[in-house]
Amino acid sequence: MPVDLNGYWKMISNDNFEEYLKALDVNVAIRKIATLLKPDKDITQDGDHITIKTLSTFKNYNMDFYVGKEFEEDLTGVDDRKCMTTIAWEGDKLVCDQKGEKEGRGWSHWVQGDELYLELRACGVVCMQVFKKT
User: Fold this and answer.
1) N or C end: fewer C-beta atoms under 10 angstroms in the chain?
2) In Å, how far are 46, 64, 120 from 67, measured between CA atoms?
3) 48-86 pLDDT, tens per residue?
4) Per-residue pLDDT averaged across 111-115, rounded?
């Protein structure tokens, strides 16, 4: 049975984020702003329908999807690319595969105790973010 991701989560750590953004070819000005932010995650999970809202003072990003169904993801405002995205449960991890211009792009979410982990991957670079449930 998949883990319950529902809730509001506040960022407590963000390791290797600038290198991850470099791997996505995000320009230096946006990288500098983004690395100063501590975005929150607001996650709503209803069966296979999940909405993940990433909220910050600079820019918000909403992701609305059904687990196991491929969709075209518009990453305008992130790195201005489009990719074909599939998200599936692998045990207790929610794993995203983003097929497009960048090799090995995707992420994984999982929960340990009252912390939500997010591993971001692109071009061999890994960023680890941790959030605490409020």
Assistant:
1) N
2) 11, 10, 18
3) 999 999 999 988 999 999 999 999 998 876 778 899 999
4) 96
With CA atoms as reference, report the closest residue to 94 among 116, 74, 114.
116
DSSP 44-102: EEETTEEEEEEE-SS--EEEEEETT--EEEE-TTTTS-EEEEEEEEETTEEEEEEESSS
Question: Can you give the pTM of this predicted structure?
Answer: 0.93
What distances in angstroms separate CA 74 from CA 12, 25, 112, 115, one per listed residue?
27, 16, 30, 28
CA 95 to chain CA centroid, nearest Å? 10
The mean predicted confidence, pLDDT, of the chain is 94
Distances (CA, A) of 107 to 28, 29, 57, 128, 134: 22, 24, 23, 10, 22
Distances (CA, A) of 32 to 28, 37, 71, 130: 6, 9, 30, 20
